[in-house]
Amino acid sequence: MIPNLSYPGILTPLNLDPIPLLDQGAILSKFDLANSAHQVLHLDQIVLKPSIINALLNRGLSIKKVDIWRWNLSLSNNDDPHSDGSTDGTGRTIGINWNMLNDNTGVEFYDTNQGSAVFKQMPDGRTHTNWLFPEGTSPLVVWRSRYPSLINTQTPHRVVGPPGTFRYSITLKLNPNLIYSEMQDRLWDLRIDHDYWPADIDSSTVNQISNIVTRLETNAKFSIPDGGVVAYNLPADAELLKIFNQFCKKSIKNFRVFKFTNGAKSHLHVDYDATLKRSPAYSLNIPLYGSDNTEITFYKNMGGLIESTDKLTGSRLKAVDDNLVYRSSSLYITSPHLIRTNILHEVDIHDAANRKVLSVRFFDNELDNPTDIISNIKLAIK
Q1: Using one digit for the tens of pLDDT, what is the confidence trace for 283-316?
Q2: How many domains is the chain partitioned into structurally?
Q3: pLDDT at 322
Q4: What is the pLDDT of residues 318-350, one digit of tens each?
Q5: Domain containing 354 — which CATH number?
Q6: Which of 72, 124, 236, 348 is the most buried (most CB within 10 A)?
Q7: Do 260 and 146 reside in the same domain of the chain?
Q8: Which residues contact residue 317 at a Cβ distance below 8 angstroms, ignoring those fewer than 6 apart?
Q9: Domain limits at 138?
Q10: Pick from 43, 78, 84: which is nearest to 64 by CA?
């Protein structure tokens, strides 16, 4: 499990490529070996992978500057915490940050209420703030993992790690310069602690859907496979399409049913279409029965994936190295939800119940926002 996955008002993990630079080696070679506390390269966005630039552009954000940092930890461990800009809201308020090489390093974040600020006006017009804290003050949170995150840079922070080593990190400075909460709202669908969204489908409509599914399954020409966990596609049905076309904004690829016998488990996987050679980004899951104590757990994968085939559930992807897989969030799915299916996830039934769920699949892509898939999504999730 990733420690300190998020912290309110300070740190939010994002589903972005953990290796953001096109040519990391060439860029890092630009640093010299001077024994300064830190060095920084101010670069253009051309050094970033296009997928990262596009992900931000699709959310109305442009990159003002890319800062690549080299921290000498023998020196920065002793620095006072600092904040960018000033606490009155002026100056740069947020950054999107990656730790590039050394997982033993970290960033400590401190509570402003426990310290006192010393403002500095920089020659280029920027405001920089040092913070003085009583000896022994503990940080609110220490960010150590390499996953990219939205950082509130007005929170006092300092870079720490083993003396004699270095931390290389990237900070993206964005336009517009929003406050942290506004930027969270702008990037809400990229949060890896948000892997699911409630769908506004009332119980009477769910009952209607369940009755249609039963009708289709009892057709004499339809056969349901046997097994602890099985999956099968329903025949195309005009009545079912009519219901979902009221709020589905993408074309529906298929209606897929998953059945679990009591105690069954869907092992860690990413959904995969072997014919199209791609992972569907989302699934609209409708619990039909037995889901009162069913948990879907989502994971962040920092390693690779490999194709695997199960004769009962079909093609899927699995992690190459389980040591690079970290738990990010979980959901007890007792009502309709749109969920991510292009990230690692697994399903557990925590009681002696059979479970059945309808999974609506779409012709979607990884750049789609949840609101591009269905119109009745509930955005107010915390």
Answers
A1: 999 999 999 988 999 987 878 889 887 665 667 8
A2: 2
A3: 85
A4: 888 888 888 878 889 999 999 999 889 998 888
A5: 2.60.120.10
A6: 72
A7: no
A8: 269, 270, 271, 272, 279, 305, 306, 307, 308
A9: 11-188
A10: 43
CATH number at residue 139: 2.60.120
Co-location of 85 and 219 in the same domain: no
Statement to judge: residues 357 and 335 lie in one domain: yes
What six digits make up the tokens of 312?
A: 């009962």
d(CA 374, CA 158) in angstroms, rounded, equals 42
Task: Please tell me whether the overall predicted TM-score, pTM, comes out greater than 0.85 for this model.
Answer: no
Would you state the structure tokens that stand for residue 159, as one six-digit string? 């870079």
Last residue of a domain, one of 146, 172, 188: 188
Nearest Cα residue to 257 out of 295, 198, 217, 311: 217
For residue 30, give the nearest of 38, 18, 21, 39 by alpha carbon: 39
pLDDT band at 126 (very low <50, low <70, confident <90, very high): low
Q: Are residues 210 and 355 in the same domain?
A: yes
Asked if 304 and 159 sit in the same domain, the reply is no
In this model, does residue 165 exceed pLDDT 80?
Answer: yes
